[in-house]
Amino acid sequence: MAAVPQPAEVWGELAPETLTALGRLRVRIEPIAVPFGPERSHANKIGALRVTVAADRLVLVDTDMLALATFRDQRPFDAAVAAKPADLQAWTHDVEIWRATFAAGGVRLPESRVLTTVSGEETPPYFNSGMLVVQRPAELADQWERCANALWDTDLPSGVWSDQPALAVALRATGTTVATLGDELNFPVHMRPLPRDQPPALAHYHRPSVVEIEPRLRACVHDLMARHPPLARLLRSRPEWNGVVAAAPPARRRRRHASPRRDILITGISGSGTSRLCRLLRRYPDCVVVMDPPEVSAALDTQRVPWAIPAYMQRTRLAVAGCEEVATGVVGGRPPIDPLAVRPANSPGAAAPDRNAARAANPDHVLAIESVPALARLEAVRPLIPDARIVLCARDPYGAIASWKRTLAQPGERGGDALGLPRHDHPLLPARDREELAAIAACSDDAERRARWWAWSARRLLEHRDGAVLVDHEELVRDPRPCLARVMPGLAPGAPPAGPGPPAAPPQRHVLDDRDREVIGGLCLPLARELGIAVRTDP
Description:
Helix 2 runs antiparallel to helix 9 and helix 5 packs across helix 6 (164-173). Residues 252-259, 330-355 and 409-418 have low confidence and may be disordered. A five-stranded parallel beta sheet has the order 13-16-12-17-18, with helices on both faces. A four-stranded mixed beta sheet has the order 3-8-5-9. It has a three-stranded mixed beta sheet with strand order 4-11-10, with helices on one face. It contains 20 helices and 18 strands. It has three domains: 34-182, no CATH class; 207-254, no CATH class; 262-531, Rossmann fold (3-Layer(aba) Sandwich), CATH 3.40.50. It is of the alpha/beta class. The chain has helices at residues 8-11, 16-24, 44-49, 95-104, 137-152, 164-173, 208-213, 215-227, 229-236, 242-246, 274-281, 294-302, 308-321, 378-381, 397-408, 431-442, 446-464, 473-478, 480-487, 514-531; strands at residues 2-6, 29-33, 58-61, 65-67, 81-83, 114-115, 122-123, 131-134, 178-180, 187-188, 202-204, 262-268, 287-291, 325-327, 355-357, 366-370, 389-394, 469-472. It is 37% helix and 13% strand.
């Protein structure tokens, strides 16, 4: 059943080809009245709940969803209402504003809390309205409209109060216990990639460009077009679906399990060749590389659950598909060592980041994101991008520390002050790391500070090497082909680059003094051997 807002002179009419497609699919068209008019179009769900149905439950689903799998769990349909928590806390983080929000509807703020499904924030009961299972829909619709009107008459934030905030209050007002759903019936595919192994039953894509960048969504649409010619004609007539329609469908034998997206996260020890690896990957025709994007740095610096990283990867794919520019954290052609320790790109006096006009020949291109500071928070990042290939770059301590000493120490400074250590008091780092970084920052011996910083970074590599690809700087410089073969298997980035790659800077180990070599030998060499990387002690 399709709930269509009325009157037509306000909302417009369905196009004839849309009516034909819905008719062939045997979709019942039901006119509805929408409270608050087109200015608050999200309130169309209130009108949809008032449709009369001869059923025990009404299942309300946004139209921008695709069914990818069979859903067999009966439990959500046993409750009076079933919904999933909101993706993000988009209303307010202020508990007093929440208290006033519920008070506007004549109810008290609940003591219970839920976690938003993308950002992992604790919030009063606050639900995504894209998919609802409701036992008494008309009663909920009346309360939802009443609470939306009450919020309209307050001085509370002027966001989309008629949608999820008003729904939260209405559910409280009806005394309904809500069965909390997970992502399987309302997966926010516009904010993170589909899981590799088990696709959700319903994928909430929000706009056609998201379908274009997700192979399994494209496969689903192409299957629907093949089975329903009127739908195919309708989509071909809509410019916003051009990218999806024009993309070649997956081979039939692979349609059911179309290839997942191809993402890479590159991190590692500072000065260990992440930039060099990025320059090599950019030579593949179907690989887009973004170095040190400021959105990733901001997520690492501010979010307990850095959900903005997978969301950024989704937006970057959309930008590449639209041949748009992509901002990087590179300033003047050179990335900072660690943006956790430098001014954000939008802070006063900060230089503007460079931008890449990224393009790829294949809509299912490989997307590689480089972020050295991600090493400090891989425990939080990896669960959010479980199917991404993690590449860890390492360099022997003599070479790495010599490069730091040569390029970062300035006259009049203690060598190593510019190493860009993550802040030792950063609240999002584990207590273990904060203590160790505080000890490093307090060390008065420059040589020891550098060695301890390398050792701290190496221990993070050892912790995360399972399931990751380790790239040794020495091998990457000598002959990058074996390294690239380990990074790229199964990703099909196009023909491998010819030639040896960009020239490497000559080794500068002669800048190391006896104290450097002493502390490197004591603090770093055991870890380097455990990593299995090549170590050169000669100048």
